[in-house]
Amino acid sequence: MAFSTKLSLVLFLSSLFIHASLGELICEELPKDVCAFSIASSGKRCLLETAKNEEDGSVEYQCRTSEVVVERMADYIETDQCVKACGVDRNSVGISSDSLLEPQFTSKLCSPACYQKCPNIVDLYFNLAAGEGVFLPYLCEKQRTNPHRAMLVLLSSGGAAPGPVSSSSESLTAALAPSPL
């Protein structure tokens, strides 16, 4: 059995053990290597944060419950396959839309292996893109047809730079559209 398959099995079994022994998935009780991209029983996203140890000044990683609620998922630890397919990192501290500016990341996020099979990660980045004024399905379409244009779409919207005024209802549709979860 390959190492990644064994690790996936161990993570899956440990998530079952955590859920069975605690009755619910609580972010603060998750190990740091499965914290990011997990969702607590409450439906809130788990977030890896750093904390300074008062005694020796060292930095420690802690899993915390964010205030971000996922509407259609709970009790979920993201699979290693989705982490790899989507190009995300479980050791990421916090979460930011900055990665959407990286063409390699956007390419992986918009790939069928991620976009069609990893609804948790897609929902997260859908909401981050929306916060920047970008409709993720539109960005992914541009990524597939013209990757350079995709970056212009992102840079010309949201807080990155002022974008052109559109006479179409596309902006309203982007703001009101639900995530593709």
Automatic annotation (TrEMBL):
Pfam families: PAR1 (PF06521). InterPro entries: PAR1. Residues 1-23 form the signal peptide. It comes from the Eukaryota. Keywords: Signal. This is PAR1 protein.
